[in-house]
Amino acid sequence: MWNEPTQEQLNKIPRLYETENVKLKDKLIHLHFFIGGCDWYVAEYDGDDLFWGYAILHNDYQMAEWGYISFSELKEIKVNGYLEIDNDVHWKVKPASEIEKIRIKTTF
């Protein structure tokens, strides 16, 4: 994984279920990972390996969904044996409703 998040960044993410009473549109997205036409937006973290957030695979917005994301599996993904997932180092924490790629399918 390129630009793997620091422990400090990971520690700032709410723990799993900590924001379950927050509406989806208001959930803060703390990290954005991407490769090609795939995007993963992270809202919660278990402190070990499991994220909860929104995933879009291969620009397939019809099948995009909120759910669990394995951090270790993200780190293992390689395209053509060398191209790895990247952590968006310019990402600014913002509510899901402000992210165009999430708004495409999600009705808040």
Average pLDDT rating: 94
Can you count the beta strands? 9
Low-confidence parts: none
Broad shape: globular
Proportion of residues in β-strands? 25-35%
Order of helices and strands: HEEEEEHEEEEH
* Strand numbers in spatial order across the main sheet: 5-4-3-2-8
Taken together, the total number of domains comes to: 1
The residue fraction in helices comes out at 10-25%
Secondary structure tally, helices: 3
Distance between the termini: 32 Å
Instruction: Tell me the structural class.
Output: alpha+beta
| Largest β sheet strand count, sense and barrel closure | 5 strands, antiparallel
Radius of gyration: 13 Å
What's this, in brief?
The protein has 108 residues and is α+β, with helices and mostly antiparallel strands.
Which structural traits does this protein have?
single chain, 108 residues, alpha+beta, five-stranded antiparallel β-sheet, two-stranded antiparallel ribbon, 3 helices, globular
Question: Any overview of this molecule?
Answer:
This protein is an alpha+beta fold and 108 residues long. The protein has one domain (7-103). The protein is 14% helix and 33% strand. The protein has 3 helices and 9 strands. The strands form 3 sheets. Strands 5-4-3-2-8 form a 5-stranded antiparallel beta sheet. It has a two-stranded antiparallel ribbon with strand order 1-9. A two-stranded antiparallel ribbon has the order 6-7. A hairpin with a 2-residue loop joins β2 and β3. The protein is globular, with a radius of gyration of 13 Å.
